[in-house]
Amino acid sequence: MKSLKKMFAVLLALTLVLSMAACGGTGNDGGDGDGDGGAASGLSGKKISVMTPYLGSVTTNQMVEFLKSGLEAGGAEVTVVNTDNDFGALASRIEDVVAAGTDGIVLVSADPNQVANQLQEAFDADIPVFGCDSGFIEGMQVNATSDNYQMGELIVKYLFDDLMGGKGTVIALTHRPHPGVVKRCEAFDDIIKDYPDIKLITEQHVPAEQPINDAQDIVENLLLANPDKDSVTAIWAAWDEPAIGATQALKEAGRDEVIVTGVDGNEQAISLIKEGTNLKATVQQNFEGMAQIVVDQMTKLFDGEELEKGEMYAPATLITPENAE
Amino acid sequence: MKSGKIGVKYIVQTYGTILAMLAIIIIFSILRPDSFCTVRNFINITRQISLLVIISIGATMVMSVNEFDLSVGSMASLGGVMAALLAVNGQPLALCFILPILICFAIGWVNGWIVARFRVLSFITTLGMSTVLSGVIYKLTGGATVFQNIPQGFAWLGTKKFGEIPLLSVLMILFVAAFWFLMRHMSIGRKMYAIGGNEEAAKISGINVAKYKNMAFAFCAVLACITGMLVASRVGSANTTAGDGYFLQSYAAVFIGCTVSRQGVPNVAGTLIGAAILGILANGLTIMQSPTYMQDIITGSIIILAVIAQKLGQGDAK
Lengths: 325, 318
Known about the structure:
The complex is a heterodimer.
Chain A: H1 2-24, E1 47-52, H2 58-73, E2 77-82, H3 87-99, E3 104-108, H4 116-124, E4 129-132, E5 142-145, H5 148-163, E6 168-174, H6 179-192, E7 198-205, H7 211-225, E8 234-237, H8 240-253, E9 259-261, H9 267-274, E10 279-284, H10 287-302, E11 310-313, E12 317-319
Parallel strand pairs in A: 1-2, 1-3, 3-4, 4-5, 5-11, 6-7, 6-8, 8-9, 9-10
Antiparallel strand pairs in A: 10-12
Helix pairs in contact in A: 2-10, 3-4, 5-6, 7-8
Chain B: H1 2-31, H2 39-64, H3 72-88, H4 93-118, H5 122-141, H6 156-159, E1 161-162, E2 165-166, H7 167-185, H8 187-197, H9 199-204, H10 209-235, H11 244-258, H12 268-287, H13 292-317
Antiparallel strand pairs in B: 1-2
């Protein structure tokens, strides 16, 4: 019995070690090779922690890759930390890197308000904190982002004016817990008030684990509730993944007349726009531009310059069948 | 008079969950006769629950030997990711779908082996395994959704329809039938239930407990893997966390399913009904265009009520 207990303890330890190795080990490989030969930038030799709960998202991943290569080009040592949708774990990992004396933190696609206490520890330890499409709270250096409200405005106005001609019905697919997405939703809320001839059929929340699949189910069900042709004029999705799911559901149901729009400009969405499907437009965020802003500002800071703290915007562009590529 | 009371009790106990499901169907049918109560929608529901049912059958088997597998979610994500990566890599499609099954079978076997050999709590073992698998997925994908250059044929399993009937619905029925038969009428099923009922007694009566636990975990892993691959095939991309959403839902389906059996044990037919209740609620409430928070509140409450009803029924019976 005693040996069994021991065995259990050993196994537990082994499991933990294994799981830590599996999670932690990935940050350091992949990018080796560049980073050497960097100029005498202030970034050189700095340990930077790039942290996100959403690495599975195509766009977040894109930003993390840009950040990693940009910072490593300056000679920094980059560790990527991903917590798979878990903000509690993100908070703990921030505490860990602060305790480990990291030289800088970049928070990617995560609302800093949700980890404010942990970031405060970083501020207290004089560790500079940057946001990349995250949000800005007092104490941070710079958050590079698109103006999500303006992106919302851009796509909602294009949808309402150019695609719908100022009238009809619309379904909204949203995810308000996300700091960027909620601003687009607010733009939608504000603008629809000015269009008395556009009726919101329903707003549905799409969970983040498998948004394409879930949006497909939701739209399929909503189409059954609105079976007549032209009973739904448009589906407005607050980001591209549910727009893709909606497009697949509409295609399956043969409802060619329904217009879909997304936001983000991910590659799958752009190729659907190009193919002439229900998906008619999206707004492409300049993720590369955001990552570049962070890299530039970080370099400035470590070169000893004082930064102007606050939000910095990378401009977004409207993607339609005419300019999709 | 007394016998009448027992009669009602007997019916509620035996058929309560099924009656509840029928009640839900009737309510939605009255409220939305044109859109909910149509053949097309019922076909839709079967497709929408098909993936949940397949993964839940696996959870049913593990629970029948009185264990838990918390790694089903990441196992499903892993299955989808491996299949998609193989497809992107240009491997023949058959291999894309078979190789992940073999790998997950082995991982499931390891789960079972650890639990049976070291008598470790399956809860913590599979929790650890789940974390390991998340790491493996991260390593394989760099954390990114796999969607570029997936060949057209990859979507066949998830999107094919025979007339109006989706292949996914057909697969679900085949899986339910096969595993219902396996658990109900074959010796492997009876032995698993014997182990779940009383492990010591099962051992004394000569059942190889370790072997059947291994099998339960291996089957569970394979079914989770298949679910993950079908999700990836359906949406044309493999999200690294696609399986997470199924983990809690599958156990909800199994627990509701337990209330269908008079002994309160996990069973395949019950799991189908459990998943159907969850699926019908999601479908009906979306058709009603009820806001998401109401859907969550109603679905959660019904899960709780179902298990309370079961306990009350059991208490009275004793």
